[in-house]
Amino acid sequence: MSSAWFGPCPHCNVSLSYLQGVSGSKMNPQCPRCHTVIAVTRPTFVKADHSRLSLMKPTRPMPY
Ligand SMILES: [Zn+2]
Q1: What percentage of the chain exceeds 70 in pLDDT?
Q2: From ligand 1's centre to the CA of 7, what distance in Å?
Q3: How far apart are CA 36 and CA 28, in angstroms?
Q4: Ligand 1 center to residue 56 CA distance, Å?
């Protein structure tokens, strides 16, 4: 089973996606921005989470 969550890099605070159980998962993934190794308990693939950068700025409410 794969799972994913979102969080900031512990070093540079950039928004990241953490994906477990996908191809390319590593026990010592690196932040794509600052290249700090991120400690994980299970193989994880880390990538920049561009989709959430907009949450950092004021935006219109979503039309739900
Ligand atoms: Zn970083």
Answers
A1: 80
A2: 11
A3: 9
A4: 16
pLDDT at 44: 96
Measure 64 CA to ligand 1 centroid, in angstroms.
Answer: 33
Q: What are the domain boundaries of the chain?
A: 3-53
What's the pLDDT at 60? Answer: 66
Residue with structure tokens 């959430």? 52
1-23 burial, b at 16+ Cβ within 10 Å, e below that, comes to: eeeeeeeebeeeeebbbbbbeee
Dump pLDDT digits (tens) for 29-60. 999 999 999 999 999 999 998 775 555 555 56
d(CA 2, ligand 1 centre) in Å: 23
